[in-house]
Description:
heterodimer, A: 4-stranded mixed beta sheet
Amino acid sequence: MVSAAQKIAPVEDMASRRAWDVAAAVPDPEVPCVTVADLGILREVTVKDGTAIARLTPTYSGCPAVLAIEMAVEAALLGAGFEVKIERVISPPWTTDWITPEGQEKLRAYGIAPPSGGENSKRALFGETTVSCPRCGSIETEKMSEFGSTACKALYRCKSCLEPFDYFKCI
Amino acid sequence: MPADVRPADVRPVDARPAEIRTLETPPGDALFQMMLRVGDDHLVMGHRISEWCGHAPMLEEDLALPNIALDLIGQARGLLTYAGELEDKGRSEDDLAYFRTDRQYRNCLLVERPNGDFGQTMLKTLYFSAFMEPWWRAACASPDETLAGIAGKAVKEAAYHVRHSAEWVIRLGDGTEESASRMAAAVAALHGYTPELFEVDDVVASLVARGVVPDPEALRADWQRTIDGVFAEALLEVPHVPYPRTGGRQGMHGEELGHMLAQMQALPRQMPGQAW
Lengths: 171, 276
C-alpha cells in the first residue's frame, strides 16, 4: 500500500513548508482527534507571491464538514500571515488509504475503529469485514448499522466488552 | 392499491401562459442536458429520502437515511454545479435547484414518487442505486475529467446504498406476512418506473457515441442481475411491465414533484439571495 505521505506532493520551499505545517495542524471538526493531514484530506499547500494555495479534498460527496474544514484551514493560514486561496480537488478521489498510519492510531485511541484492510469499493452483498474493538481489541464484533453518526462511520458493537463503537468505513 | 399510484401516461396539459412556458430550459449542449438530468435525479431522490429524517422506524435508520440523502445531495451538487458551468450563463447549483419549476426538472419519474412506507422507499433506493452504481463505475473512465472525478467518489457511496437497501428488501420481502405483502405492493407500485432509467434519446445517444457517458443498455444486465438476485432471496417476483411510465426527461412529471419542489424551494423563492 502506498502511504499517504508518498502520495502527497513534496513541499519544496520554506514558505510552503511553513504554510503546510500551519494548515496540517487544523483538526477535523467532527473527529477532532485527527488533523486534516492525518486524514489525508489536505493534499498540498504551496505559497506563491505570499498567497498560500491549499488544496483539499472531500471525504464524501455530501460531507457537511467540507465547508467548515475549508474555513478552518483558511482561518489558520490567515492567522499565520498568508493571503489564502482554497482549492477543492475531487480527483483522484479520497479513499481511506489516505489516512496516515499515525491518523489510524489516533482514531483507535479516540475509540473509533480505523478502516480495516485496503480500500474496498467492490460491492459485496452482505460482505463481512473483520473489525476489531478499539477498546479491548477483540474481533468478536458485530455491525449494528451501516451508517453511524457521520457519513464516514458505521456503528458496531463489541461482543466481548459489550461496548458500542464507531467504525471508520473503508471506502 | 396505494393511493399514490396513478397512471403517469395521462399527461397534464400545459395550460400556463406562453411567457411562462418559454422559461423552459433550452436544448443547448447535450452534456449540459445530461448533467441536468443526472443532477436532478440525485437532488430529487436525495430530497425525498431526507423527508424521512426524524420519521424513520428506528434510530439506526434515522441515521442511515439522512446519510444516504447527504450522499445523493452531495452528488447532485457536483453535477448541477458542473451543469451550470457547461451552460455558461452564470447559473449556480442553487439557481438550478431552487429557481426551476417542475416542468423544467429533468429527473426520471421513479425518484419523484412519494416515499410511501419504509419498504417502498428501500425498494426505490435499490432500483435507483443498482442502476447508478454500474453507471458511476463506467463513468470513472469517462474522458470528461469533471464527470470522472464526481464518479470516483460517487461509485463507492452508491455501492453502500445498494447494499443497505438490498438487505432491507430481502428482510422485509422474506419477513412477516404483513411485510411481504407490503413489499409486493411496493414492487407493483414502482417497477413500472424502472424502464425510464434505460431510456435513450438524442441527448444520451450523442454522448454515448462519443464515449462521454455510459451506455444505459450496457448496464441493463448488471442491474437485472442485482434485482433478480435480491428478489430471489426476498421471495419477490419480477413483474412484467406492459406500459412503462416515462416522460420525466421531457419535463412531464406527476403532480407530486410540484408539491415537493414547493416545499424545497419556498425559502429561497421568498427570500432570494438570503444567506446565514
